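pinned: reference chain
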Amino acid sequence: MKTISSQYHPPQDERELVLAWLRRARESQMAHYEMANIFSARERWLGVPVILITTIIGTSVFTSLTFQIISPEAKIAVGMLSVIAVVLSSLQTFFKYSERSESHRSAASRFGAVRRKLEVIYAENSQSEEKHYITTLRDELDHLADESPHVPVAVFQKIQKNIFYTGDANAQRNTSGSDKTIGTN
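pinned: its structure tokens
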């Protein structure tokens, strides 16, 4: 089994701590938005066929009212489509993709709010007031981490790989060679 190693250097002062939290909040925000997008796509993947199939079934029922003789193959096809529609609809209900998407979107939004607070502290660099903010934001980040839905490691790694932090000695570049910086979403 392959293990992933990372170099971790604990923050040496409050400014480094704020920067580390800012980066983590940004990564978490982006990872939750990515998960929201994944679940929205899955919802559409199941939802669109259900709509199409039920439309075909409904049209077939009206067509069968006008024709007295319906072939057994047509009856079987409509029956199979009905079963497929029920299965897809049941999967939609079971997986709750729309709810899970909204949960991740909400978590991303809350991480974004914390990130913006951290950016203000980092930009102001006001040492005297930072201790109060650090305690408050630590508690807020802890609470948010506890409340937020799970994000798979692969999604976090994808996000971390694609972020370039300006001024970071260990910065990564994406495959096209262009830089990605911390945004303000």
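why pinned: Residues 169-185 have pLDDT under 50 and may be disordered. The radius of gyration is 25 Å.
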